[in-house]
Design goal:
The protein is an alpha+beta fold and about 300 residues long. It contains 6 helices and 17 strands.
Amino acid sequence: MSQTPSSRNVPVGIVQFSCGEDPQENLEKGLRGIAEAATRGARIVCLPELFSTRYFCQSEDVAHFQRAEPIPGPTCEVLSASAAEHRVALVASLFERRAEGLYHNTAVVFDADGSLRGRYRKMHIPDDPLYHEKFYFTPGDTGFVCLSTRYARVGPLVCWDQWFPEAARLTALRGAQILIYPTAIGSLEDEEAARETQREAWEVVQRGHGIANGVFVVAVNRVGKEGGIDFWGSSFVCDPFGRVLGRAGAAEEEVLVVACDLGLIEETRCGWPFLRDRRIDAYDGLRSRFLGDAAHGQNTPSR
């Protein structure tokens, strides 16, 4: 019997954990989380950003390039086997070694048979205190992608991408039903007073992506203190109305499984037809860096 839209429930598994110095231990922790999520009914599972290592981007050190590996590579082989064993689609973020001196922060997507459905190379690369990612990662050149799995069409994005509505929009326009963000975000030691404000902004902007595009959003963070960053966990799933369907704790390692009714996508978009009413003839300015130069008396190119 074919499924009706209202019964297209896809359980999504979030594996939130802390990362230590030993990549093998981190990998094994991730595999245990995948297994637990699958046992609890998850059909799509996501791990945190760069889950196999501590967050090394807090300093600029060429030695850290040794952490990178090719895709496909050893970690991909293990993840592929886990996806096939548990019959889940799997999203994971890896430090990709593309060539000598060329590295990316890359999300890979495996289908439930273990096949590599594709990859997404992180497009937006931050350079902030203790987030020196521009030193390590070349901006992605895959564009924004939608990858079909056995259970749903997923749009992988990575951490800093979560702040950019353009990334969410273009991924949704490619057909993604679920935006999935492997993430490593927290507050700095001298920002503890602003921690909750920052965490709320992080969640709210992503819930807005769900509403504006009529899709589900999944954000998977790490927890624990690493160097000068206290990762705030709070991994969550929201629906196309922006409602939080499940949220992990701020400090605990946790496996969360949340059912996503894909029928809500059509229901939401019919009621709030934002895609229908987009003025695609009026958005050329989005390809400009800034449009206010003329208003400020500056005679500069728009790009």
